Protein 1
Amino acid sequence: MFLYTYENLSKQALTKKGKEYVDQLKEIYEKDFENKPILALPFSKFKLFHTSGDRVLYQNEYFIRRKRLMLLQVLALTDDKYIEPLEDVISAICDEITWCIPAHCLDRDTANTYKYYEIDLFASETAFYLAETDNIFKDKLCPEIRNRIKYSLKKKIVDVYENTVFGFDTMKNNWASVCSCGIGITYLYSFPERFVLVKDRIFSAMERYLVNALGGEGYCSEGFSYWVYGFGFLALFFDVYCQLTGERPSILEREEIKNTLEYGKNAILDGGIFLPIADGGSKGEHNEAPVLYVINRLFNTNLYLNNGREIEADTQVLGTRVLANVNEPIEEDKDKSACVYFDTNQVLVRKKGDYTLVAKGGNNREMHNHNDIGAFAIIKNGKQYICDPGVGEYTNGYFNSPKIRYSKETFVCSAYAHSIPMIDGKTQVFGREYQAKLVERNDDFITFDLTSAYPENKADIKVTYKTLDNSVKAIYKISNANSVTFRFVSFIEPKLNGELVMIDDMAIKNSISAKPTFERVDYSGFLKVPKTAYTIDYTVNGSDINAEFDFEF
C-alpha cells in the first residue's frame, strides 16, 4: 500500500521515470507560472454567471490557482526552492472568500444573492488538495501557513458541513461522491478526531451513489468522463481511508463496484476515445490518467490507459497520484471482439476487430441528457467517423433552460447534433416520455423502435444497426411519414466522390436516390474550446420509406 508521504513521494521522484515526469511538470511550471504573480479573482468575473451566464472566465483563473498548487506540490518534493511559492499559492487560496464557484453558490431564492460558504464539487476538491498538501509537507511548511490551512478548512468546510444539510446529501449523481469524498479526505487528514461524527453520512453518500447513480449494471448515464469524476473520487477517498485506517471496508466488495469496473473497461474505446454519450463522452474534462491509476491499484484491475503517462491538458492535477504510480507497468487489456449491452440506458457497445459501434436507445431526460434516442457512433483509428459532438460550453442557460440547451445554437445537446432521422421536418425534443423500445438484438445487430421518440408523431419508425467485418449497416423502416431526413454527424469533413460520401477512408453507400447535403457547424465546446462538426443529410419523400446505409471501411 502506497502512503502519500513526503518520504515516499520523494523516492518516486528520484527514479528514472519519476525524474522524467517531474521534468515535464517543471517545464509546464516554468512556462506558465515561474516568476509570474498569482492571478487575482476579480468580482467583475465572479458576477458574470449571474449577469451574462458566463462561467468560464472566472473559473479559468480559479482553476489556474489549483493547477499551480498541484504542480508545486510535486516540484517541492524535489527542491526546497519551491516551498515558498507553494506557501504563496496556499495563502492565496485560503484568502478566497469562497471556494465555491459562482454557478454553484448563487441563491436564486433570495434575490440572486451568493451563499459564500456553500460547499460544492470544487470547494470539496480544494479542501482535499490543501489537507493533503499540509499532510505531505508538514515538516516543510512554516507553522503559520499550516495554521491558515487548518483555519480555512474548519471555517469553510468542517463547521459548515456539520451544521448544514446540502443538496449532495440526497443527490444521486457525481455530486454525492465528489463532495462527500473530498470532505471525507479532509477530515481524515486534518480532523481525524472528528471523522467518527461524519463517517456514516459519507458512507451513506457512497452507497447512494453506487446504487442510484451507477445502478445494478454500473452504467453511468452522465457519461464516461463523469464516471471518472464520480467513481474516481470514491476511489481517491477509499485509497486514503485504507491507508490511514488500515481497514478495507466491505462496501468495496459490492457487486455494483465489480459491475462499474466492467463499465469502465468497456467504455474506453479506440485511441483514447471514451464512450461518446451525454456530457461525459469527450476526453480530458476530469483528469482521467491520475484517477485511473488509483482505481487500478485500489481494485486490482487494469483499465487501459491509451496514452500511458504522456502529459496532456490536466494530468498535472493530482500529479502526486501519477508520481505514486509512475513505475507501475501499463498493459493493454482490450477485447477487440467484446459486445456489451447496458439495459439501463439501452446502450450497445460492439467492438468488432478494428472498429467499435455504439448505438443508444434510452429516453430524452437522462442525467446530462442529449436528445439522442436511436443515435449511433462509429470509432476507428482513434477517430469518431460518426460522432457524438460531446459536451458544450457550460453556461447558466446550458443547465437551467432546456430551450437554450437543446437549441441549434448550443448544438451539442440537441437532436440536430446526433445521427438520427428527422420526421416530417420534426426532430426529437426534451422529455422522459420520448423514449426508445428495444425490439431485438444479438452480438451483431440491434433494433430499436423510435416511434415514441418524436413529438406528435404519427409515423412508425424502426432502425437496425448491424456490424459486419468491415462495415456497419443502418437500416431504417419508416411508414406513415411524408418526408424523412436521415442525418449523420462526423468530426471529419465529408467529401463527395461520385455518388459516394467519403469520411476519411470510410465510404457511405445508400439504397435511396437522394443526394446528400453537407453543413459545417462551428460550436463552443467545454471551457469555450472552439469545435467543428459536419452534418450529412439525405432527404426523401413518401409514405413508406425503407432505407439502408452502408458505412464501409
Protein 2
Amino acid sequence: MASSNISDLFPFIQKNIHLFDAQNRFLKKIILTGKISALDKAANLFEFTERTIETFTNLKEELIPLLIHESLKKHTEELGSKAQISIDILIRNLFERTADVGFLATDESIISYLNNQKNADQLRKRLIEYTMKYSVYNEIIITDAEGNIRLNINKDNGLSSTNDPIIKTALQTDGYVEQYAHTDLFAAQPKTLLFAQRIIENQQAIGVLILCFRFDDEMERIFSSLLASDEHILFTDSKEIITSSMNFTISANEILRINTDSDYVYHNKNFFVSAKTKGYEGYYGARWISIAFKNIKKESSVSTTNTTLVKCTLDDKIQAILNKSDDVVEDLNDVIINGELIATKERVYVLTPILDNLRIVSSSILETIKETVAHLENTIVDGLTYDVQSSAKLAIDIMDRNLYERANDCRWWAMTPTFEEELSRDLPDIKRLCTVLLYINNLYTVYTNLFIYTSDLTIIAASNDQTVIGKNVTGEYAFKTLNNQNTQSYFVSNFESTPFYGNQSTYIYSATICMNGKILGGIGIVFDAYPQFQAMLNDSFPSSKKGFSFFIDRKGFVISTTHPTIKPLDHIDLDDDIYRYNSEQATHRLITFNGIKYLVGIAVSRGYREYKIQDNYKNDVLSLTFIEY
C-alpha cells in the first residue's frame, strides 16, 4: 500500500524537482549555443560554466533526497508521537481502573449487602459518592454468583439479570477481568468497556462487581487534546476499528489492511503512522494499535523560520549542502561577471544574449534554491519545536491525570467503613486500621505511606512506615481537613520536604473521616513523588534528543527534574514571561541556561476532568523540556 510516487507525498518537492531539471536543461542549452557562437573567444568561461552545471546537478541529487528525508521524518515523528501518546495515555488511565475494581470489590458495605439485601438506598448512595469522585465511571453494577443484578446506581437501567460471560469469567478469575464488547447490560450501545472482579467472603465467591468505564468520553478528551483539525487517530485490534476521532471517508477494510509494522504507509492521499503501547507498570490492556493519519497533499507553503535556531540545529551534512548551494549561485555570478569582461575586452558581442540568458536562469536558480532551502530549514525547525512543545505538554498532562487519581483516592478511602467505625470508638483497634491501610497501599503502589490521624492531629495508624504513629500532622492542609464536612473536598500540602517522606519533598493528599456529621479525623496519603515525577519526565522526553526536563512552580522552584545536578526545591532563574505563561497551548523559547543554548518547550497545568478545574484546588505547575541546539 505504500506509494513510491513523490508527487503523491510532497507536491512541493516534485515541483522543485521539475524546476531544477528545467533550469539544468536551460543552462546546457545556453552553453551549447555559446560554444557554437564564441568558443574560440571564451573557452575557459564555458568550461567553468560546465563545471558549475555539474555542481548544480550534484546539488539537486543531494538536496532533494535530504528534503524528502526530513519531510518524511517530520511527519512520521509527529504523527507517530500522537499515535504513541494517545494509546499510552489511555493505558495509564485503565491501569488505575484495575486497582479500583480490586479494592472496591472488598468493600464491606457491598459484601454485607449481598448477604442480607438490606439498605439498598444507603449502598446506592455510597456508590454514587464513588462515581462523584472517580468520574471516569458512569455505572456500577453488583451481581450475585448467578448473574442476578442485586444493585446498580442507575435507576433507569431496569435489568434484573445478565447473561454476559464476564460474570462467569470473573467468578473463575483471581483478579480483575477487562472486557470491551457488546453487553446486555447496555444493550443500546455497540460496545462497553467493563472492569469486573469477583466479591469474596470466607474464601467463597458470592458475587461480581462491575465498573463501567466512560470510554467514548475519555477518547474524546484524548483526541481533542492531541489533534489538529486535519489530523485523525483511530484504535484497532487488527480485526475492526475500536474507536476513532472522526467519521472518515476511508473504508474500514482499507485501514485494516495497513501494515502497522511499517514506519509509515501512504494510501489514498493519507499518511499513516501506527504505534503499540509501551505498557505501564506491566499492564498492556487489550493491546490495541493506535493509527494517526492526515492528508499531506496540501503541504506547499513555507513559513518564516527562526534563523538563529536554523543555524544551530543543522548538522554538518546539511550545512555542507547549504554551503554548496551558495557556491553554485556565486559561481554563476562569476560566470556572468567574467563573461561581461571578455565581451568588453574582446568585443565578442555575441556573448551578450548568452549572458542575458545566464542572468535569467541564475536568478531562477537562486529563487529555487532559496525556496528549497527555506522549506528544508522550516521542516527541520518545525520538527524540533514540535518535539519540545509536545514533550512539555505530554509531561504535564500525565501529571494532571495522575494527581487526579490521588485526589480521588484520599476522598474515597476516607469513607472506608472500618475507618469510620474505629475512629468513632474511644479505643480504636490500631492493628485493624494498619492492616486495612497496608492492604490499600499494596494495591496502590504510588504511595510510600498512608496514615490516619485523629481530630487532635495525632497519627494513630500507618500502612508502611509505622514510625510516624504518635507524631503530629502539621500544615494548613491538615487543619482544613479537620474543618470540613464535604465528602467531595480534599486538601493537599505544599510541595515541600516532610519527615513523612524521609525529609524529601512531596505532596500529601488528605481527606476528612466523618460519621453522621461528626468529624473524626483524616487520612493522609504520601505520594511517592521522586520516582513518579521522574518517570513522567523521562517517558515524555524525545528519545533521540539531548537535554532534560523540569516541573517547576510559578516562582521557579523545582518540583522534579532530570537535570543531573539540580534537585527538588532548587530555584532556576528564567525569564519572568516563562513563569507567567498561562495558555492552553504549549509554546517554546530559545534560552541560554548555564552557558548552553537550549530550545525549551513550555506547558502549564490545565487540570483533568474536575481536578484543578471544578474542585477549587489551585496549584499551577509548569512543564519545561530543554533540548540542546
Protein 3
Amino acid sequence: MMYEWKQTEDSIWKIGKRNVLQVIFSRTMLIMALIVIQFAYIIARMYTFAEHIPVILGSEMIAVAIILLFIINSQENPMIRLSWCFFVGVFPILGSVIYFVIHFDLGYRVIQKRILMMAKESRKYTLEQSEILAQIKEKDYQTYCIAQYLNQYSGNNISANSDVAYFSSGEMLFEEMIKQLESATQYIFLEYFLISPGIMWNTILGILERKAKDSVDIKILYDGSCSVTLLPYKYPKQIEKLGIQCKMFSPPIPFLSMHHNNRDHRKIMIIDGRVAFTGGINLCDEYINVNSPYGHWKDVGIMVNGDAVFEFTKIFMQMWSATINKKSSDLVFPNMQKYLPTKNDSKKIFKGYVIPYADHPVDDENIGKMVYMDILNQAKKYVYIMTPYLILDNEMKCAILFAAKRGIEVQIILPHIPDKKSVFALARENYKSLLEAGVKVYEYTPGFIHAKVFVSDDERAVVGTINLDYRSLYWHYECAAYLYKVQAIKDIYSDFVETRNKCMKVTQETIKQQNVLGRVFVCILKIVAPLM
C-alpha cells in the first residue's frame, strides 16, 4: 500500500495553523511572556520604587540564593539544574515562580502517584526468570546484565519465543496494521502520542467501528497534546458513541498546565494478544508520506508476537488504569489472566530474546537512557543510530565519544530537512566534537527521519519511541523493545545501510557553513536546551 506524497493548499493551511497553535500552547511562548513581564518589572522598579532599590535588590539576592541552593541540591540531571540556575539567576522572580510551579504541580503529583501505584501492581505479573537469565548469562554475560536490569527495574519479562518483524517505512507498517486489525476477534488496544484525521486514522477508525459492532473490546488512549492542534477537545466522547472506549492523557491548559512537560510519547497497538506494534510511527498521514510537510518522511516500526505481546499489554494497562477517573486509593490494576499468553508445550526453537520495556518520568530511573548507554559501552565492533533529534546531556555525549575513541564504528543518521529548526541547530552543534572523535554523521537528504533505532554488532538492537533528547530521556513516557539475536536485526542493519546510501555525509566543511549569528543563536539555545 503506497501513497504518493503531495502538498495541497489545504494541507499547507493546516500545517500553518498547527504551528501557530503549537507556539501558543508551548513552553516557548510561556517563557517569552515571562521575559516580557520580567523586563516590565525591572523598568517599574527603576522608576516607581527607585528610593527602595537597595532593599529590593538585597531581598531578591537572598531569595535567589535560597532558591539556587534548593535547585543545586535537587536530584535532577546536572545539565537541567544548570539551566534552571541560569534561568532563575537572569530572571529571578519569574524564573523562581515557574520553577516552583513546575516542580510542585498538583497535576504531576497526582499522575505520579497513580503511575507508580499501577507499575507496582503490574509487577504481580513479572515472572521469576532465573532460568532464562541463566541461559542468557551462558551465552553473553553483558547481555545478561542488561536483561536482569530491565527485568528488575522495568518489571517486564524476557521472551525467548517471540518473533519480530521489522518495517522500514510507515507505509509498510500501516499495511500490516490493517491486515492484523481486520483479523481481530477479542480486543484492540491503542496508545499513541499523535492521532490526526486523514487517510491513516480514518481507515483505522473505520475498522475499529466495525469491530466494536462485533463486540470486540477496543480501548484508545492518546496524548492530550492532540487536542491543541489535531483533534477536538471532546473527541473521546465522539469516539465513545461508536462503542469504543477512548481517553485523553493529560489534557493541556495553555500556560498553566505544567505537567504538559510529561507527555505520553508511546506508540503501541495490541491485537488479541497475538501481535503488538511499536516504533516511531504515529497515526497521522505524514507517517505514511501523505502530505508530508518535510519531504520524504522516513520512519520504522516492529511487530512482535509470542510472549512479548503480553509485556506490551502490561505497559498499556498501566497507563490506561492510571487515567481512570477515580481517587488514587480506588484504582485497581486489571486482572490480566485473560491476557496471559497461551502455553505452548511444543519444543521451543531459539528465536533470540525480546524484552519490551517502558520508561516514565515519575521515578528516578532513566531506563531508556541507560539501555542506550549500555549498548554504546558494551559494543565490540559498531553502533549504528537513527534519530530525529540529538540534544545530548554530558553522560550520553561522553558515551558516544568514548565508544568512537576506543575504536567502535559509531554512525548516526539525522534529518536533513528539520521539523524544528531550533532543535536541528542544537543537533548540529554536536557535529564538531563527534567528527573529531571519529563518529560518522549523516543527514537524510530526501527529507525528515523520525526513526528511533540503535543496532550493534549484528546481535542487539533497540526499536521504539525514545529519541536522543531531554524530552524522551527525562520528561516523557516512552517504550521500546530490546532485541538480542533475533532475525529482524539483519533487516534493521540492512535498512540502516540502505538509508545511509541516501544521505549526505557531514564533514568539517558542513560545520563551517554556519554563520556567526547562527552560532550566537545556538549558544543561547544551549543554555535552555535541557528545558526544551
Protein 4
Amino acid sequence: MNALTSARRFSHCLAWLFVAASIVASLAGVARAQQDDTTLRVFIFAGQSNMVGSDSRASDVKLYAPFAGLEEPQPDVKFSYCIGREEKRKSDGWVALAPVDAVVGPELSFARRVSEHVKAPIAIVKVAAGGTTLGGDWNPDEPSGFKLYPLALDWIRNALADLDRRKLSYRIEGFVWHQGENDMFQKEYRAAYARNLANFMASWRRDLKTPALRFYVGELCTKTIWGMDHRAEMNAIGLAQREVTDADPLADFVPTAHIAIEIGGDGGLHYHYGTLGQLEHGVHHADAYLRTLGKEPKSARPLATWPYPKGGRVQLFVLAGHRNMEGERAFVEDLGQLKGKGALAKDNARIAFRYSLGGGFKVSDGWEPLGPAGCYDTFGPELSFGAALARKSKDDIAIAKFTHSGSQVVDWSPAGSETPSRNLYPAFLEFVRSSMQDLAARGQEVELAGIFYHLGENDMSFAPYRRKAIEQLSTLVDASRRDLALPHLRWFVSQQPPTDTEGVRSIDVTAQLAQLAAADPHFLHIRAFELPGMESPLVITTPGIVALGELLATSYLKSR
C-alpha cells in the first residue's frame, strides 16, 4: 500500500469518525430534548400521490368512526404546505392543520395520534406532488421534471425562517417519505432507488444541518392494482427501501401494504389509498415516531384465566383470508347501531383467541380473549362466528386467525409468486401448527375443526388473477392437508358475489368452486351472496362482516 493510499484511507476514516461523533452528539441532544414539552416539533412530509392524498375526500371521513372529526381543522397544529405539480396549492405562511382542497392526507391522523401522546406542540411542513420520481424530480444533485428537491428545500427553509421571525423555539423532529411507484416504471430509476434514497436522506441532513434527522419511509401498498399488475417492479422498490432503512440507524421502514385503498368503479380496484387508507397511513407513521420515544400506544388484552379444563377437548377453528376476513371496514363503534350486536364489542374470556393480522403486522400476545383486535378499532367475522358457535354448541372452542388484507390468492399458494417476500404459506402453516401445539402443551386434546377461508376479493376484479385463483386455492388446500398430516382436514371456503364486469365475467369462479366442492367431501363452498353492508364493490362493512361470521358458523354446524 503506497503512502497516498494510506493517507486517503486515514482521511476517510477520520471523516466517518466525525460523522459518527456528530450523530452521537445529536442523538444525545435529541434525547435531552424529548423531555422538553414547550419546543415546537416540526415534521416534514414529502412524496408523490399517496402522500398528496389523491382520490380521498374530506366529506367521507365521517364514514369511519375511529377517525371522526379529522375533516375539521386542528387549530393547535401549525401547517405549511405546497402541494401539486403544474397547479400548486400553497398555504399563505403557517395555517391551522386541515384538509387541503377537501383532500385527506396522512398528516391529519398523524398529528392527532402524536398529540394524544406527546405534550409538546407540533407543526407539519408538506411538499408533495403526484407522478414524480426520486431519480428525477426529487433528485438532490440533478433535479429534473418539476425539480421538487430544490423547491421543497426553499419551502421548508422559508417556513422555518418564519418561525425564527416569530421567535418560536423549534426543532426538526422527523421526515416522513412515501414515494416509489413512479420510479418502479423506469429501469434506471428502479435499479438506482436504494442509492438515490440514501443520497436523498443524506442531502436533507446536510442541507437542513440536522445530522441526526430521522426518516420514516412508507411501504408501497400491495393491495392496489399496481401491487398486483407490477409485482416484480414494486418488490424491487420495497427491497431497496428496506436495504436503506436497515443500514441507517436513523431510518424506519413503515409497513403500509395492508391498509385500505380507495374503491374504484365497477371493478373496485384502484391506485390510491383514498380516504380510509390515508387516515390509517398517518397512524402508522405516528406510531413509528412514538416508538422511537418509547410511547407507542399499546392495548393489553390478557386472558387472565385459562378457560378450558386440563385434559379437556378443544376444537380449534382457523380463520384465514384477505381484506374482509381481516375486517377492513368493520368498526367496533358501529356495532351499537346493529340490533342485539353490541355485546360483540366486549371481550369473551371463555374463548381463547390468537391472531396474526396484516401479514404479521399485528400479532397477539399469545392467547387473548376473543374480542375486537384490529389495528383501527376494527374486527372480522370471528366475533359473531365465535358467539354463534358458543350459543349453539356445548364444545369448548378456540379461534386462531391469520390474515393479510394486502394479499392475493397467489401469495397463499405454496408455490408463491415472483415476489417471494409476499409468500404467506410458510408463515400460515407455522401459525396453524403452533396454535395446535400450544393448546396441546397446555394439556388440551386438540381437534382442528376446520380452516375457514374467505376467497380473495381483489383477485376477482383482475382477469389474470381470477383465472388462476381456484387452481391456486386447490393447491393450498392440498398442501395444508399434506404438511399438517391431516388428509381429511376440512376447508370451508366462503365467497362473496364476484366482480361482474366485462373483463372478468366470463371466468366463472363460482362454478369452479362448486366443482371443487363436489369432488372433495371435506371441502364446503359457502355462498355469501346476500350479505348486508356491501354498498361498494369488494368491501364488506360492519353489518356484512357480522352476518358473514354467523353464516360461517351456521354452515359449520349444519355440516357436522
